[in-house]
Every structure is written in structure tokens, then in C-alpha cells.
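> forwarded from #structure-qc
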């Protein structure tokens, strides 16, 4: 059979070693993700590392280093489709960016293992695990630090509650006041609520703002007839 004719013990042993390295290092990365209950956990990271390893190893067996380089380039771009599957938008927040980046790194670890670069694969694993664990206290400390509104970029929303009859006028007022304050709008929605009111929700283009400007805009809106309340909120949180 052709399979036995093309079988070479040394090549198979080399492939087996690469798969073992990818499995062990993928487990190290995935265990941390599983511990934190992320959407892509232990098995996903291990499978990504194993798949990348075997694709690169197969290409190198068929076409040498040139074939391995070509497959690595496909792994780099192709893993993005898998990473996109764990990224979710939750209101103004985006979840899964860190998990997607970790999958990308798991693929790099597997590619290194498949290219017989075990030391590089191990070094990358150490840095990935360190980034996801040792940097967490620093991230928490930065997130808790008070930051003035004009010093950070965020997504800002203005929400206005009004009567159904006055919704169109309220929408125009929101647009006019924000335009006068030189804050561009990326999206504005008009929604009917179960309580009989309508909500005008404007999302500003992500930029730095002065908190006082938004306070002034909402104060002017609340003073208008037919508007029961006007508030604004901001979000800068990226969840992994």
C-alpha cells in the first residue's frame, strides 16, 4: 500500500514530538482560560495548537520549509475566523477580544511546534500565560483609577424619554444640541417603550469629551416640553 511506502519512522517520530509539544503547551494556555470560564477554554486552545502544528508539519513534509512558510501565513489569517466567533457585542461593551487573541497565540504555539521550534513555542507559551495572569492585577488597578472624561476615549450615549407625540421633535433637538456642541453622532435610534413613552438614544462617535458639555446638553433637553428625562452614560470597558 502507498501509505506504507511513504511511511518513514524518523519523520513520524518528529511529527509525534511536535504534536506532544503542541498538546502540552496548548493545555498550559487553555487551562488558564478554562479556569476563568472563558468561551474558548482548555479543549479549544489545545485543538487550535494541534491543528496548526499538524498543518505546518504536513506542509514541511510535502514541500520543505517553503511549504511550511506558506501554511503558516494561512494559519495567521485563518485563525481570525475562529477568533471572530468568540467576540460578542454586549450593549456598548465588546466581549471576547482577549480570548480571541489567546486563540491566535495558541495557533502560533502550534505552528512553532510543527516547524520543530519547540523552544520558541515554549517561550511564547510562557509569555501568553504571563500576559493573561500576571498582568491582571495591573489591569484591575488601571480600571479602578479615576480618569477625567476629557482624558480618555469612550463611547458615550444620550438617552431621552419623551411622549410618543413629541418623539420626532426630541430627536431633532438632540441632534441640534449635539451638533452645536461639536459632538458628532454615530447612531441615533427612536424606540417605543411598554410604558407608553418613547426613547431617543444617540450614540456619539468615540472621542474625548468634556463631561460638562454633556451635562449642559441633557439639562437643556430636560427643560424642553414633552421630555420627562435626559441622561448620558459612557463605557470604556473591554471584557475578555
Amino acid at each position: 500500500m502507498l501509505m506504507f511506502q511513504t511511511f518513514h519512522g524518523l519523520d513520524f517520530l518528529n511529527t509525534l514530538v511536535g504534536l506532544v509539544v503542541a498538546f502540552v503547551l496548548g493545555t498550559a494556555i487553555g487551562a488558564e482560560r478554562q479556569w476563568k470560564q472563558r468561551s474558548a477554554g482548555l479543549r479549544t486552545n489545545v485543538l487550535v495548537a494541534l491543528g496548526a502544528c499538524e498543518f505546518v508539519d504536513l506542509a514541511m513534509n510535502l514541500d520543505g520549509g517553503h511549504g511550511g512558510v506558506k501554511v503558516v501565513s494561512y494559519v495567521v489569517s485563518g485563525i481570525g475566523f475562529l477568533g471572530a466567533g468568540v467576540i460578542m457585542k454586549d450593549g456598548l461593551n465588546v466581549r471576547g477580544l482577549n480570548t480571541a487573541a489567546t486563540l491566535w497565540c495558541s495557533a502560533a504555539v502550534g505552528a512553532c511546534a510543527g516547524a520543530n521550534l519547540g523552544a520558541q513555542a515554549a517561550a511564547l507559551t510562557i509569555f501568553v500565560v504571563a500576559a493573561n495572569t500576571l498582568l491582571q492585577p495591573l489591569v484591575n488597578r488601571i480600571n479602578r483609577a479615576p480618569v477625567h472624561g476629557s482624558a480618555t476615549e469612550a463611547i458615550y450615549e444620550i438617552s431621552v424619554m419623551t411622549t410618543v407625540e413629541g418623539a420626532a421633535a426630541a430627536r431633532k433637538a438632540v441632534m441640534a444640541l449635539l451638533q452645536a456642541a461639536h459632538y458628532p453622532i454615530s447612531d441615533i435610534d427612536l424606540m417605543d417603550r411598554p410604558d407608553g413613552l418613547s426613547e431617543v438614544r444617540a450614540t456619539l462617535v468615540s472621542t474625548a469629551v468634556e463631561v460638562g458639555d454633556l451635562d449642559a446638553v441633557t439639562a437643556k433637553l430636560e427643560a424642553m416640553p414633552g421630555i420627562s428625562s435626559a441622561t448620558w452614560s459612557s463605557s470604556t470597558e473591554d471584557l475578555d
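QC bot note: DSSP finds eight helices and seven strands in the chain. The two ends are 50 Å apart (CA to CA).
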